[in-house]
Design a protein that fits this description.
By secondary structure, the chain is mostly beta strands. Helix content is 5%, strand content 24%. Among the domains are: 25 residues; 106 residues, Tumour Suppressor Smad4 (Sandwich), CATH 2.60.200.20. The radius of gyration is 54 Å and the shape is elongated.
Protein backbone atom coordinates (compact mmCIF):
# COMPACT_ATOMS: atom_id res chain seq x y z
CA UNK A 1 0.00 0.00 0.00
CA UNK A 2 1.50 3.43 -1.02
CA UNK A 3 0.51 7.08 -0.59
CA UNK A 4 -1.17 8.59 -3.61
CA UNK A 5 0.67 11.93 -3.17
CA UNK A 6 4.27 11.07 -2.20
CA UNK A 7 4.31 7.43 -3.13
CA UNK A 8 5.69 6.47 0.26
CA UNK A 9 5.12 2.95 1.43
CA UNK A 10 2.44 2.85 4.10
CA UNK A 11 1.71 0.09 6.56
CA UNK A 12 -1.47 -1.84 6.08
CA UNK A 13 -4.49 -0.10 7.58
CA UNK A 14 -2.84 3.39 7.73
CA UNK A 15 -5.23 6.35 7.68
CA UNK A 16 -2.60 9.11 7.09
CA UNK A 17 0.72 9.16 5.26
CA UNK A 18 3.66 9.46 7.69
CA UNK A 19 5.74 11.42 5.16
CA UNK A 20 3.33 14.01 3.75
CA UNK A 21 0.47 13.79 6.23
CA UNK A 22 -2.23 13.42 3.62
CA UNK A 23 -5.15 11.19 4.31
CA UNK A 24 -5.17 7.87 2.64
CA UNK A 25 -8.25 7.58 0.43
CA UNK A 26 -10.23 4.35 0.58
CA UNK A 27 -12.54 3.27 -2.19
CA UNK A 28 -15.76 1.73 -0.88
CA UNK A 29 -16.06 -1.85 -1.68
CA UNK A 30 -18.93 -2.73 -3.96
CA UNK A 31 -21.38 -5.08 -2.31
CA UNK A 32 -21.27 -8.58 -3.58
CA UNK A 33 -24.25 -9.41 -5.82
CA UNK A 34 -26.91 -11.52 -4.15
CA UNK A 35 -27.25 -14.97 -5.52
CA UNK A 36 -30.81 -15.64 -6.62
CA UNK A 37 -32.06 -19.14 -7.36
CA UNK A 38 -32.69 -19.84 -11.01
CA UNK A 39 -36.36 -19.68 -12.00
CA UNK A 40 -38.36 -22.85 -12.34
CA UNK A 41 -38.16 -24.61 -15.65
CA UNK A 42 -41.75 -23.77 -16.56
CA UNK A 43 -41.01 -20.04 -16.08
CA UNK A 44 -38.30 -19.91 -18.75
CA UNK A 45 -39.42 -17.95 -21.77
CA UNK A 46 -39.07 -19.87 -25.02
CA UNK A 47 -36.06 -18.90 -27.04
CA UNK A 48 -37.09 -17.50 -30.35
CA UNK A 49 -35.33 -19.15 -33.27
CA UNK A 50 -35.56 -18.19 -36.87
CA UNK A 51 -38.12 -15.78 -38.23
CA UNK A 52 -40.95 -14.58 -35.94
CA UNK A 53 -44.29 -16.19 -36.56
CA UNK A 54 -46.84 -14.06 -38.30
CA UNK A 55 -50.61 -14.58 -38.18
CA UNK A 56 -52.79 -13.92 -41.16
CA UNK A 57 -56.49 -13.10 -41.07
CA UNK A 58 -58.66 -14.66 -43.73
CA UNK A 59 -61.53 -12.45 -44.79
CA UNK A 60 -64.65 -14.36 -45.85
CA UNK A 61 -66.76 -12.42 -48.34
CA UNK A 62 -70.33 -11.71 -47.30
CA UNK A 63 -72.92 -13.72 -49.21
CA UNK A 64 -76.29 -12.10 -49.73
CA UNK A 65 -79.53 -13.34 -51.19
CA UNK A 66 -79.13 -16.97 -50.08
CA UNK A 67 -82.37 -18.93 -49.57
CA UNK A 68 -81.83 -20.78 -46.30
CA UNK A 69 -84.75 -23.11 -46.94
CA UNK A 70 -82.91 -24.51 -49.98
CA UNK A 71 -79.80 -25.19 -47.91
CA UNK A 72 -81.73 -27.25 -45.34
CA UNK A 73 -84.23 -28.78 -47.77
CA UNK A 74 -82.35 -32.07 -47.87
CA UNK A 75 -82.10 -32.41 -44.07
CA UNK A 76 -84.67 -34.79 -42.54
CA UNK A 77 -87.54 -33.04 -40.80
CA UNK A 78 -89.44 -34.85 -38.05
CA UNK A 79 -93.17 -34.18 -38.19
CA UNK A 80 -94.71 -32.58 -35.14
CA UNK A 81 -96.54 -35.13 -32.98
CA UNK A 82 -100.29 -35.11 -33.27
CA UNK A 83 -101.90 -34.07 -29.98
CA UNK A 84 -103.69 -36.96 -28.29
CA UNK A 85 -106.76 -36.49 -26.15
CA UNK A 86 -107.75 -38.88 -23.41
CA UNK A 87 -110.69 -41.15 -24.13
CA UNK A 88 -113.77 -41.30 -21.93
CA UNK A 89 -112.58 -44.62 -20.57
CA UNK A 90 -109.22 -43.12 -19.57
CA UNK A 91 -110.89 -40.14 -17.96
CA UNK A 92 -113.19 -42.37 -15.98
CA UNK A 93 -110.20 -44.37 -14.72
CA UNK A 94 -108.67 -41.18 -13.32
CA UNK A 95 -111.90 -40.16 -11.59
CA UNK A 96 -112.16 -41.59 -8.08
CA UNK A 97 -114.90 -42.08 -5.51
CA UNK A 98 -114.47 -42.60 -1.79
CA UNK A 99 -116.34 -45.50 -0.21
CA UNK A 100 -116.66 -44.90 3.55
CA UNK A 101 -117.95 -47.70 5.78
CA UNK A 102 -119.98 -47.11 8.94
CA UNK A 103 -116.91 -48.07 10.99
CA UNK A 104 -115.02 -45.07 9.52
CA UNK A 105 -112.78 -47.03 7.13
CA UNK A 106 -112.61 -45.66 3.58
CA UNK A 107 -111.37 -46.84 0.20
CA UNK A 108 -110.58 -44.81 -2.94
CA UNK A 109 -112.28 -46.46 -5.91
CA UNK A 110 -111.31 -45.60 -9.48
CA UNK A 111 -112.51 -48.63 -11.46
CA UNK A 112 -114.30 -51.53 -9.81
CA UNK A 113 -114.69 -53.38 -6.55
CA UNK A 114 -116.51 -56.09 -4.65
CA UNK A 115 -117.77 -55.58 -1.09
CA UNK A 116 -118.77 -58.11 1.54
CA UNK A 117 -117.61 -60.17 4.51
CA UNK A 118 -115.39 -62.33 2.25
CA UNK A 119 -115.75 -60.90 -1.29
CA UNK A 120 -114.61 -63.30 -4.02
CA UNK A 121 -114.91 -62.79 -7.80
CA UNK A 122 -116.19 -65.57 -10.01
CA UNK A 123 -114.14 -67.14 -12.78
CA UNK A 124 -112.98 -64.53 -15.32
CA UNK A 125 -113.80 -61.54 -13.13
CA UNK A 126 -111.18 -58.96 -12.13
CA UNK A 127 -111.68 -56.15 -9.62
CA UNK A 128 -109.54 -53.27 -8.47
CA UNK A 129 -110.56 -53.64 -4.83
CA UNK A 130 -111.97 -56.38 -2.63
CA UNK A 131 -113.52 -54.45 0.28
CA UNK A 132 -113.88 -56.59 3.41
CA UNK A 133 -116.64 -55.58 5.87
CA UNK A 134 -116.48 -56.67 9.49
CA UNK A 135 -119.94 -57.89 10.51
CA UNK A 136 -120.13 -60.21 13.53
CA UNK A 137 -123.89 -60.57 13.06
CA UNK A 138 -123.43 -61.81 9.47
CA UNK A 139 -126.17 -59.55 8.11
CA UNK A 140 -123.83 -58.76 5.19
CA UNK A 141 -123.30 -61.51 2.62
CA UNK A 142 -119.83 -62.79 1.75
CA UNK A 143 -120.06 -61.05 -1.63
CA UNK A 144 -122.79 -58.49 -1.06
CA UNK A 145 -122.27 -55.52 -3.41
CA UNK A 146 -120.47 -54.73 -6.68
CA UNK A 147 -119.26 -51.22 -7.53
CA UNK A 148 -117.92 -49.77 -10.78
CA UNK A 149 -116.97 -46.47 -12.44
CA UNK A 150 -118.24 -45.79 -15.95
CA UNK A 151 -118.76 -42.53 -17.88
CA UNK A 152 -117.73 -40.41 -14.87
CA UNK A 153 -120.41 -42.09 -12.74
CA UNK A 154 -120.37 -44.68 -9.99
CA UNK A 155 -122.84 -47.53 -10.16
CA UNK A 156 -123.70 -50.22 -7.65
CA UNK A 157 -125.26 -53.65 -8.08
CA UNK A 158 -126.50 -56.13 -5.50
CA UNK A 159 -124.85 -59.56 -5.88
CA UNK A 160 -127.83 -61.67 -4.80
CA UNK A 161 -127.22 -60.83 -1.15
CA UNK A 162 -129.28 -62.45 1.59
CA UNK A 163 -130.59 -59.21 3.16
CA UNK A 164 -130.50 -57.00 0.06
CA UNK A 165 -129.21 -53.46 -0.48
CA UNK A 166 -131.17 -50.21 -0.09
CA UNK A 167 -130.00 -47.13 -2.02
CA UNK A 168 -130.63 -43.80 -0.32
CA UNK A 169 -129.72 -40.92 -2.65
CA UNK A 170 -130.04 -37.28 -1.44
CA UNK A 171 -133.53 -35.96 -2.19
CA UNK A 172 -134.73 -39.28 -3.68
CA UNK A 173 -137.08 -41.89 -2.22
CA UNK A 174 -135.04 -44.90 -0.99
CA UNK A 175 -135.18 -47.92 -3.29
CA UNK A 176 -134.22 -51.55 -2.93
CA UNK A 177 -131.66 -52.70 -5.49
CA UNK A 178 -132.72 -55.58 -7.69
CA UNK A 179 -129.99 -58.25 -7.82
CA UNK A 180 -127.80 -57.99 -10.93
CA UNK A 181 -129.08 -54.50 -11.89
CA UNK A 182 -126.63 -51.57 -12.03
CA UNK A 183 -127.82 -48.35 -10.36
CA UNK A 184 -125.94 -45.09 -11.03
CA UNK A 185 -125.53 -43.16 -7.77
CA UNK A 186 -124.30 -39.66 -6.94
CA UNK A 187 -121.90 -38.49 -4.27
CA UNK A 188 -123.55 -38.31 -0.89
CA UNK A 189 -125.52 -41.52 -1.44
CA UNK A 190 -125.92 -43.92 1.48
CA UNK A 191 -126.37 -47.64 0.87
CA UNK A 192 -127.72 -49.94 3.56
CA UNK A 193 -126.27 -53.46 3.42
CA UNK A 194 -127.87 -55.68 6.04
CA UNK A 195 -127.46 -54.03 9.42
CA UNK A 196 -124.54 -51.90 8.18
CA UNK A 197 -124.23 -49.06 5.72
CA UNK A 198 -121.71 -47.17 3.60
CA UNK A 199 -121.58 -43.69 2.03
CA UNK A 200 -120.20 -42.53 -1.31
CA UNK A 201 -118.34 -39.25 -1.73
Amino acid sequence: MSCEFCQSELPAGALFCGECGNAVSRKPLAPAPLETPPPAAEHFAPVATGEPETTSTKIVPRVEGVNLSELFESSPQEPAPTPRFATEKELSSVLSFTITLGSGESVELTRSGLLGRMPAPTDGEEFEHLIVVTDPGRSVSKTHLELGVENDELWVADRNSGNGSIIREPGVVPRRAQPGTRYPVVRGTRIDIGDLHLTIS
